[in-house]
Structure formats: structure tokens, C-alpha cells
Amino acid sequence: MKPTRPSSGPSLAGFRPQLERIERRLFLKQGLSLGALTMLSGCTLKDDDAVDRVLWAMSRWNDRVQTALFNPERLAPTYSDAEVTTPFPFNAYYEEPLAPVIDETSYRLHVSGLVADKAPWSVESLRALPQTAQITRLVCVEGWSAVGKWAGVPLRSFLERIGADVTAKYVGFQCADKYWTSIDMPSALHAQTLLVLDFPGGSKYGAPVRIRLPTKLGFKNPKFVTEIFVTNDYPGGYWEKMGYNWFSGV
Amino acid sequence: MVEGALKQPKGKIVHPLFVRVTHWINAFAAIAMLMSGLRIYNAAPLYEFRFPPEVTLGGWLAGALAWHFAAMWLLALNGLAYLAYGVFSGHFLRKMFNFGAMAAYRNIRLEMKRLLFHGTGEYNLVQRVLYVIVICDLFLLFLTGLAMWKPVQLQELTAFFGGYDQARHVHFLGMTILAMFIVVHVSVALAIKGTITSMITGRLPTTPQDERPTRK
């Protein structure tokens, strides 16, 4: 099932009233004397929807700024084997024991959308493609970071192999753990963007196929990928729909 | 010229409109960034503590990030406008780097009494030092923030601060300095009658503290 563009205001709204209360209480409690400030901002702070709309609009603006800031030639710093973080932290929208376990022999990677060859791929056929490895830093949206070693097929060469329309805007990913996300085409074509087949930590880190982009935050690096699709329609993503910034470049 | 400032008639505009407007926009944006920043910090604490949710903004990580990266533009553009005004209008020269006025501070004993004069529109020595510090601190926060936001695209900047993790520590330090400044600044503004009013209306208080020591 293809994700669709979130219709309107996927909601930051749930916490807004609470936030407003907290904010006012704080101002009063600490006597910050921000009477003038609340007057200045009161017109929007009282209207949850308006604040929401501003925050979403600013996030879309930040997408555009980041798209402009993104230099496709710019390589992420690489590290030595000794600098790899062990154990590599596990992170997902669920707890570690709930990570799916996929049988490699029956696994198929599906490709769809604006691609010429839609034949599915087995792990074996992916391993037959030219491989490359990298040791880079994964930066999580939460603030922590960790250095890891990933190996696999450059996503660029995979996209070329399947005859993807590389002038399309987006590359989207569907995962076995019901996670989904999408990235912009220039980031998908970046030299360090990998279709990962080998990673430290074992299968819970996304086996058999993970996407790794050192140019984006961790949640833009989907694990347990079962389908890659190329599209011009904004596909969004699991976290993006809830309010995280879509581009999330680093 | 110091005395002149003290003897200004009540009701005279002592805080230019531009300074007042940018000040309150700055107050809103800086506090929004500070409080949302604390919520972002809580998602992966650098140290052995978290901040109580009551002092944070955004409700959860995505909300806090949305606030942080929206207020960022307001703070940056407003700050740029303020700096441009400060430099080109002579505001900084008159109020902060007025060494002529500072040279007049010869009588140390008198100066000690004068140090905390407020509500006159004249910046005393403590104010000058604190305001210069907080402007530099906001620059530090801006640069370390960029270093954390774009450790690949702006990797030289990130490396300058000692890497991504080190930039987080420096950003936190900058936040601490900003928070301390706000506490002092707001305490003094609350303690000295008329200060906040004059920062809104621009005018000196109509009921001045007449017991002010003078140089005569």
C-alpha cells in the first residue's frame, strides 16, 4: 500500500493546549513579566490551529532551505574501524524485541513507481552487484550520534540498474516493520547513500536490507526495507506525518 | 554627558522604538528557543539530569523541534535587524561603547553608587558588560546550533567546535549563560520600578526615584 500525502494538519495539535497552559503558568510563576510578550504573541498562542499552521509552514520552509543547502558533492566525514561505536544503539518506534525477523531466502525487495524494470530482487542477486563500505556517523533526531560501519550497494547504481527515472522528485521506502519514509532524489543519488546488506549488531538492525544516508538524520535511514518506489508525489513518512521535518538533512 | 542623561525630562523617549520592538521579539524568540531546546535536550540528555516538562516547550520532541527551528528564523532575522540598527544608527556607540562617558566615571565611590542606576535610558557599566556578553553568547549559540544542524554540509564548522558531540556541550554551555543572563536581567528589571514600562513606552517613569545621588 502506497503512503499518501498527509491531507491536512497531521497534528501537533494534541499537545498544544497543554503547552499553552504550561507556557502561561511558567511565565506567571517565574514572574518573567512577559505581559507585553503575551500581548504580542497572544493572538496566535490562543489559537491552536494557527500556531500549528505556522509551525508546519516553517517546517516546509526549512525543507526548502535544506534542499538549497544540500551539496551533492559534499561527502560526510568518515572514520576508522577503531572509532566504531559498540554496541551500536538500537532505535526504532518500537522496543528491540519487536524488531521483525525476516527469512533471507524467501525475502524479495520490490521496486515500483517510475522504474523501467520492476522485477523483485533476492538478497543473493543484490549481493551480486558491486559492493562498497563506509564508516560514518549516524546522527539521531534525538541528539545522540554513533559511528557505524555499513556495506552494500550504492543506491545510485541500484536505481540506475532498475532504470529509475532519476529526474523524479522522491524515492520512497516501505518496510517490514510497517515503517515508511521518503527522501529527495539528489540525496538518493549521493555517493554515500547505500542499500545496506551488512551492518554490525545483527538482524535487528534492519536485515536483510537497510538504507543508509550519512547526509540525513537516523530516522531517514529505513530498516527492513521491502519496497523501493520512485515518484513525483510527495510520499511523506511515518515520523514526518507526525510532525518531524521531512528533509532532515545533516 | 552622563549627568545630562540623568537630568533628562520625564516623559522623554529614552529607548528608541526600533530597540523596543526588536527587544520584545527577541525576548519571545529567545525564550521559545530556550524552552524548546530544553525539551530537545530531554530526548537524549547529555548529562545526568532532565528538565521538568513544565519548563519546556513543544510537548514532545517533534513539537519542540518545530518550535526550535521556527523560532530560529525569527531570532536570527530580528537579531540581524537589531545589530544592523545598532551599528548604523550609532546606538551601540552611544549606549555600549561610549568610552567618553565611561572616562567620566573617575570617582570610583560615586561610580559604585551609579552602577545600578536604571530606568534612565542610560546603560550602566554592568548593563554594558552583560549586554555585550549576551550578544556574543547568542552568536555562540547560533554557530554551535549550525554545527549540530549540519555536521555534514558545514563539517568545517562542526570540526571547529571539536566535532558533533562537543558542539552539543558548547551549545548547552551557551544556553546556560543565556538562562543566567535572563534571570539577572529580568530580576533587575522587576526590582527597579519603571524599567519595564520604559522598555514598552520608551519613556522615563513619571514617578522618578528622586533620591538618586547626583554628581553635584
UniProtKB/TrEMBL annotation, chain A:
- Oxidoreductase molybdopterin-binding domain location is 100-239
InterPro entries named in the record: OxRdtase_Mopterin-bd_dom, OxRdtase_Mopterin-bd_sf
Give the matching Gene3D superfamilies: Oxidoreductase, molybdopterin-binding domain (3.90.420.10)
**Which domain of life, per UniProt?**
Bacteria
Kindly provide the name given to this protein in its UniProt entry: Oxidoreductase molybdopterin-binding protein
From TrEMBL, chain B:
> How is this protein positioned relative to the membrane?
Multi-pass membrane protein
Provide a GO biological process annotation.
respiratory electron transport chain
Q: Which GO terms describe its molecular function?
A: electron transfer activity; heme binding; iron ion binding
**Annotated TM spans:** 21-41, 61-88, 129-149, 169-192
User: What Pfam family is a match, any one?
Assistant: Ni_hydr_CYTB
Domain Cytochrome b561 bacterial/Ni-hydrogenase as annotated: residue spans = 14-202
Q: Which cellular compartments is it found in? A: Cell membrane
- Assigned keywords, A-Z: Cell membrane, Electron transport, Heme, Iron, Membrane, Metal-binding, Transmembrane, Transmembrane helix, Transport
Per the record, its GO cellular-component terms are: plasma membrane
| Domain of life per record | Bacteria
Family, according to the entry, reads as follows:
Belongs to the HupC/HyaC/HydC family.
Give the protein's recorded name.
Answer: Cytochrome b561 bacterial/Ni-hydrogenase domain-containing protein
State the organism named in the record: Methylocystis echinoides
